[in-house]
Amino acid sequence: DIVMTQSPDSLAVSLGERATINCKSSQSVSHSSNNKNSLAWYQQKLGQPPKLLIYWASTREYGVPDRFSASGSGTDFTLTINGLQAEDVAVYYCQQYYNTPWTFGQGTNVEI
Amino acid sequence: QVQLQESGPGLVKPSETLSLTCSVSGSSINNYYWSWIRQPPGKGLEWIGHIYDSGTTNYNPSLKSRVTISLDTSKKHCSLKLSSVTAADTAVYYCAREGYYDSSAYYFSGTFDYWGRGTLVTVSS
Fold it and tell me: Fewer CB atoms inside 10 A, N or C side of chain A?
């Protein structure tokens, strides 16, 4: 299985500031055939199911605000929230879909 | 809009079989993978497995010996059975639509764009 490790586990950011979450996979999730990385990011607010934010490591899902951006390739990936808003308080998960079983990081709790 | 709704017993006894159903509306059940994902209270997400409309399944090896996922396309239901449950199987169970079609109608699996609200299943005597 591909192990996904996120850092930090928890992050406190002031309103309007930047939050940065890192995700590392135990093996590359990059496809040499098309240069795409099979890495997604989800946001889970308390009591709700996860919501897809990003796929292919950097493509925002339709309707996701552009203050959410992501980058990375191979084994190292980053989710950035620019100008954190109160509604962004949540747990964020990375997920690889390069090989089954699909696996998730342990989550990063973002708070104000 | 696409809606998924999980249903089933909220309490299951140890050693028995957990059975859940996911009702799909607003989406074709054909031509997609349908996944089950679980989340123990206060913990992270674990993919259980998925099924395609052809009946093709793929399970997480950690649960494979105990899991069965099935699809009833006429009722637009996806079902999960997990046998020989223990307290470690206590979790919120989600069903989710997996994958998407790009502008060239090519299907990419592995991401989850629609989720049910989840149902908490507690394993206890």
Answer: C
